[in-house]
Design goal:
Strands 3-2-1-4-5-6 form a six-stranded parallel sheet, with helices on both faces. The protein is of the alpha/beta class and 179 residues long. Helix 4 links the parallel strand 5 and strand 6. It has four helices and six strands, in the order E-H-E-E-H-E-H-E-H-E.
Length: 179
């Protein structure tokens, strides 16, 4: 069987200066690129929030988040610190206005893509620990994949202090390896 690296939402709007910046979000670049170049993965997938301008999670449309990662805008592009030359596939998520799109599996072809490549184990890194990383990893577990979350390759929003730590604890309890 094969292993995949899932790089969740390492995008401009989630890094310093972006519309929904994660503190230290850009700092994961070195670790993510190290994993990409390690040769340990048969498939490298990057997910992107790729929202329509009228996405329901946006504050102007009744949601809780500022407008971010609108499709085809600079903020939605993958962060320039990411070595995209070694990313095999980009999966866009959050494209439907009425869904949160936190998980890389929600309304995407990610599961089919992983199965087509014989993947049974995924390592998850990216932004943000307490939202999209957590939900992608939980869905991967639900779908029967073995899951590792690399804590040095993630950063969280921490709307409430400690949200990221609690997210990693929740992932451990659900059966993921964290470390």
């Amino acid at each position: 069987m094969a292993r995949a690296l899932l790089i969740v939402d390492f995008q401009n709007d989630f890094t310093p200066g972006g519309a929904l910046a994660v503190d230290g979000g850009d700092e994961i670049a070195a670790r993510v690129n190290e994993l990409i170049r390690s040769g340990r993965f048969d498939l490298v997938v990057a997910t992107r929030d790729w929202h329509p301008a009228d996405h329901g999670s946006f504050e102007p449309h009744g949601g809780t988040w500022p407008v971010h990662c609108v499709a085809d805008t600079p903020g939605a592009q993958l962060h320039p610190g990411l070595d995209t030359s070694r990313v095999d596939v980009v999966v866009d998520k959050g494209r439907h206005p009425r869904t949160e799109g936190y998980s890389g599996f929600e309304h995407t072809n990610l599961e089919d893509l992983l199965r087509e490549h014989g993947v049974d184990e995924v390592t998850v890194v990216g932004l943000a620990t307490d939202y999209c990383v957590k939900n992608t990893a939980l869905d991967a577990l639900r779908k029967g994949f073995r899951v590792t979350v690399d804590p040095s390759g993630v950063r969280g929003v921490d709307v409430s202090p400690g949200d990221s730590v609690r997210a990693l604890d929740e992932l451990r309890e659900a059966g993921a390896t964290v470390g």
